[in-house]
Design goal:
CATH topology of the largest domain: Aspartate Aminotransferase, domain 2
Order of helices and strands: HEEEHHHEHEHEHEHEEEHHHEEHEEEH
CATH class of the largest domain: Alpha Beta
InterPro entries: Aminotrans_3, Class-III_PLP-dep_AT, PyrdxlP-dep_Trfase, PyrdxlP-dep_Trfase_major, PyrdxlP-dep_Trfase_small
Keywords: Aminotransferase, Pyridoxal phosphate, Transferase
CATH architecture of the largest domain: 3-Layer(aba) Sandwich
Helix content: 25-40%
Structural class: alpha/beta
Strand content: 15-25%
Radius of gyration: 21 Å
GO molecular function: transaminase activity
Strand order of the largest sheet: 4-10-9-8-7-5-6
Family: Belongs to the class-III pyridoxal-phosphate-dependent aminotransferase family.
Number of domains: 2
Shape: globular
CATH superfamily of the largest domain: Type I PLP-dependent aspartate aminotransferase-like (Major domain)
Distance between the termini: 36 Å
Pfam families: Aminotran_3
Length: 418
């Protein structure tokens, strides 16, 4: 009998690639069960989607109940309870002075955020960051700077996009100068590339995801906020991967002492149901007139019900606190591992968004060894993913419900491999 992988290769294009060849038949908590019956500890979490674990019983219950009531109503046609209540809940959790628009995916939310910024400011230009990832639509590919393959054959893209340098201090070209040169280079752009009065928004990941799980200095993020305020530029945070408890806070901006004008949420928002949100200050959202944006499936009733249950698990059942606690525990274990192995050049992250950068004896990125680590981990029953523009970073995306026992199991596997 053919495997799911073999069957899939006959009917889907190479573009639909996978990190593994696993065919999965069931999922629960931190574990996946493959078609051959083998169980895998999943520290990929569906790429930061199953932030409260797979098939959380509260999410399953909420979704089943909503399916019995209504699967689709159409948010362009009618109002329904899970949709309105989720918007109310997100506004409550984000300060009470925001409004929410629902879409289906992270890319769609980021595209919406860019449209909102342009619509509000009446300005054409966007500043993004090198090594960023914001999505695969033509608009979000235009503001993505982590892989030229994503842009190949799709030029020309959205015009008036400019790229600043993200403070990747482990490999900084500015040696001991820290984060300040990155601010200087950003401000120089206003003299050499684009007048600030033409810039609608600066969009950034508060922790870069695909770029390598890079955590910027708090001071740098605060300087970006200052620059935006100085020139009337909107600050957009792409919280698609960093949001919904991933960093030990509901949203990562809470770590930096700043608040964006607009931010996006997806991936973990509904524990696997397609849903995303554009969240912004009320004064900005209120100018987004009818017809300026839209979509058929955004805010699906079942997805919204799942999101409400997800938020309850995070904010009422202790998953957020556990993410912060287990993130600290996991980070400590990875720091110890780094002390023992020269191939680990750096350990970094916030909460349960953690990574280790793999290097060779000269300190250069070691893609081959990184690939080998992830491959051998899979053989041992641990699912991991890579990231970084050089594909030499192992990322750990454990669910917020993870325990010390599961972290210890993952560490035993890593120690054995290394």
């Amino acid at each position: 009998m053919s495997s799911m992988y073999e069957r899939c290769m006959k009917v889907m294009p190479p573009a639909a690639g996978r990190s593994t060849k696993l065919g999965i038949v069931s999922a629960k908590g931190c574990y996946l069960t493959a078609e051959d019956g083998k169980e895998y500890l999943d520290f990929a979490s569906g790429v930061a989607v199953c932030n409260i674990g797979h098939n959380h019983p509260k999410v399953v219950e909420a979704a089943k109940k909503q399916v019995d009531q209504m699967i689709h109503g159409g948010h362009n046609v009618v109002y329904y309870e899970s949709y309105v209540r989720l918007a109310e809940r997100l506004v409550e959790l984000t300060g009470g002075d925001t409004m929410v628009y629902f879409s289906n995916s992270g890319a769609e939310a980021n595209e919406g955020a860019i449209k909102l910024a342009k619509h509000y400011t009446k300005r054409p230009a966007i500043i993004a960051f090198r090594d960023s990832f914001h999505g695969r639509t033509l608009g979000t590919v235009s503001i993505t700077g982590s892989n030229s393959l994503y842009r190949k054959y799709y030029e020309g893209l959205m015009p008036s996009v400019y790229f600043a340098e993200y403070p990747y201090l482990y490999r900084s070209p500015y040696k001991e100068e820290g984060w300040k040169p990155y601010v200087d280079r950003l401000e120089e752009m206003f003299h050499t590339l684009v007048d600030p009065e033409m810039v609608a928004a600066i969009i950034m990941e508060p922790v870069q995801g695909e770029g390598g799980y890079i955590v910027p200095p708090k001071e740098f993020v605060q300087e970006v906020r200052r620059i935006c305020d100085k020139y009337g530029i909107l600050l957009i945070f792409d919280e698609v991967q960093t949001g919904m408890g991933r960093t030990g806070k509901l949203y990562a901006y809470e770590h930096f002492g700043v608040r964006p004008d607009i931010w996006t949420s997806a991936k973990g928002i509904a524990s696997g149901f397609p849903l995303s949100a554009v969240i912004a200050r009320k004064g900005i959202m209120e100018t987004w007139n009818a017809g300026a944006h839209g979509g058929t499936f955004g805010g699906n009733p079942v997805a919204c019900a799942a999101a409400l249950a997800t938020l309850d698990v995070l904010t009422k059942d202790g998953a957020l606190e556990n993410a912060a606690k287990m993130g600290e525990y996991f980070r400590g274990k990875l720091d110890q591992l780094k002390e023992q192995h020269d191939c680990i050049g750096d350990v970094r992250g916030l909460g349960l968004m953690l990574a280790m950068e793999i290097v060779d004896e000269t300190g250069a990125p070691d893609k081959a060894k990184t690939t080998e680590i992830v491959s051998k981990a899979l053989e041992e029953g641990l699912i991991l993913l890579t990231c970084g523009t050089n594909k030499n970073v192992v990322r750990f995306i454990a669910p917020t419900i993870v325990t010390e026992k599961e972290i210890d199991k993952a560490m035993e596997i890593l120690e054995k491999i290394l």
